[in-house]
Design a protein that fits this description.
Blueprint: H1 3-36, E1 46-52, H2 66-79, H3 82-85, E2 88-93, E3 112-114, H4 116-121, E4 127-133, H5 137-142, H6 146-153, E5 157-164, H7 173-179, E6 185-190, H8 198-204, E7 208-210, E8 229-234, H9 242-250, E9 256-259, H10 265-274, E10 275-279, H11 287-294, E11 298-302, E12 318-319, H12 322-336, H13 339-356, H14 359-370
Helix pairs in contact: 9-12
C-alpha cells in the first residue's frame, strides 16, 4: 500500500473510531435524558425552552464559555419564576448538535435535553417561549426537523426571544423578521447596557429588554493588594497585536503572565483571585476583566463603542487603541504597583462595574421580562 493509501486508511479508521465513541456516549446520554425528563410535568400547557450549543462535534468534549454559563444561569433563574410564567423551564440542544446531559466544567443544576424530546414528551403544550442565542438563529431555522417544525406550527402561541450576548453576532433585522414566520412574538434581550437602547430597538424592529448577566461582586473571592501574586491573567482571544503585547509584559521583572485556557470555572475563579492584573483581547467589557475586578484585580482593555458605556472611557487603563495599550501598559503596571495607588484605582474600577452588574437587578430584569415589562417595547 502506498503512502497516500496508508494515510487515507488511517483517516477512515480515526473517523470510524470517533463515530463509534460518539455513538456509545450519546446512547448513554439519551438514556439519562429519557429518565430525567420525567421530572417535568408532561401535561403542562406552557414551556420556556433555552437552546444551547452541544458538545464539540469532533472531540465530543464539553465547550465552556461565558455565554454558556450565562444561558444556564438564565434558565435556573427563570425556573424560580413559576409564579409569573406558569411554565416548565427546560434546556435543549438543537438538532444535529452533539448531545450532552450536564455541563460539568462549572457548578449548575441544569440537565440538557434533545430538542425532539419537546414534542415527544410535552404533547399537551400550547404555548412555547424559545430563548435562542444570537449566533444560533439561522441554525435554528435551517435545522429544524420536519416533525419539530410541524409541532411548532401547531402550537397556539410561539414566542422567540433572541439572546443578544454579543452585539457583533446579532442577526440582521431581515433575519429577525424571518423568525416571525414561525413565531407570533419575537423579542431580543441583551447581556450589556451598551446595546440596550432606543437605537437598537429601532434597528432590530422588535421589543428590546436588558437581562444583564449572572456576574455580581458577591460571587467572587476578593483579595487585597498584599494578598495578590504578581500575576496577570490574559484572555484567550486572538488579536494581531497580542504577541507584541505579551512580549512587553514578559519583560517586566517578576511578572508572571498566564493565558486563561483549559480551566474549569472554579479553577478560573481561584486563579483570578490570586491575580493582581487582568488583560482582555476580547469584547473589552467582558468576563475576563469584570470578574477579575470583582476579585480585586486591576484590569486593562481597549475601549470600543459596541460594548463599553462612555463612562469607561474615563479609566486610564481602558485604552483608546491597541497601539496606545502597547505603548502604555508597562508604565501603567509599574506606576500602579503601589499598595495605595493600586487600592484607590481598583476601587474606582470595582464601583463602576458594580454599577452595571448586580444580582438583585439581574433577577428583577428577568422577572420583568416574563411580566412583559420590556425596557423598550
Amino acid at each position: 500500500m502506498n503512502a497516500i493509501g496508508s494515510v487515507t486508511r488511517l483517516v477512515r479508521l480515526s473517523f470510524k473510531a470517533r463515530a463509534w465513541k460518539r455513538l456509545v456516549k450519546e446512547t448513554r446520554v439519551r438514556r439519562q435524558q429519557d429518565k430525567a425528563i420525567r421530572n417535568f410535568d408532561r401535561k403542562t400547557r406552557k414551556l420556556v425552552v433555552f437552546l444551547i450549543p452541544g458538545a464539540d462535534k469532533v472531540t465530543g468534549a464539553e465547550k465552556i464559555s461565558g455565554g454558556t454559563i450565562s444561558i444556564v444561569s438564565l434558565r435556573e433563574e427563570s425556573a424560580l419564576l413559576r409564579d409569573v410564567h406558569n411554565a416548565e423551564v427546560i434546556m435543549c440542544t438543537l438538532p444535529n448538535e452533539y448531545l450532552l446531559f450536564r455541563h460539568k466544567l462549572f457548578a449548575n443544576r441544569t440537565d440538557v435535553f434533545r430538542f425532539t424530546q419537546l414534542r415527544q414528551y410535552f404533547s399537551d403544550a400550547k404555548e412555547v417561549l424559545f430563548h435562542v442565542p444570537e449566533f444560533m438563529c439561522t441554525y435554528f431555522m435551517e435545522y429544524l426537523e420536519d416533525g419539530d417544525r410541524q409541532w411548532i406550527e401547531g402550537l397556539e402561541k410561539v414566542h422567540i426571544n433572541v439572546m443578544n450576548q454579543n452585539v457583533l453576532l446579532m442577526p440582521s433585522a431581515a433575519e429577525l423578521g424571518q423568525l416571525k414566520q414561525l413565531a407570533q412574538v419575537v423579542t431580543a434581550t441583551t447581556a450589556h447596557q451598551r446595546y440596550c437602547n432606543a437605537h437598537y430597538r429601532q434597528v432590530y424592529n422588535v421589543p428590546l429588554h436588558k437581562l444583564s448577566v449572572w456576574i455580581s461582586p458577591e460571587k467572587y473571592t476578593f483579595r487585597k493588594y498584599s494578598d495578590k501574586e504578581n500575576l496577570i491573567v490574559v484572555s484567550p482571544d486572538s488579536h494581531p497585536m497580542k504577541d507584541s503585547v505579551l512580549e512587553k509584559l514578559a519583560a517586566i521583572p517578576g511578572l508572571h503572565v498566564q493565558i486563561i485556557r483549559n480551566l474549569t470555572y472554579e479553577q478560573y475563579k481561584s486563579t483570578i483571585a490570586r491575580a493582581k492584573w487582568a488583560l482582555t483581547f476580547g469584547e473589552g467589557l467582558d468576563g475576563y476583566i469584570i470578574e477579575p475586578i470583582f476579585s480585586g484585580a486591576v484590569a486593562f482593555a481597549v475601549y470600543n463603542e459596541e460594548f463599553f458605556t462612555p463612562d469607561f472611557k474615563e479609566l486610564p487603563t481602558v485604552y483608546r487603541s491597541y497601539d496606545h495599550l502597547l505603548e502604555t501598559i508597562v508604565n501603567d503596571i509599574e506606576r500602579l504597583d503601589d499598595e495605595h495607588l493600586y487600592k484607590d484605582y481598583q476601587q474606582v474600577q470595582f464601583d463602576l462595574c458594580a454599577k452595571y452588574y448586580s444580582a438583585e437587578q439581574y433577577r428583577k430584569n428577568i422577572r420583568s421580562f416574563y411580566e412583559n415589562n420590556y425596557t423598550f417595547k
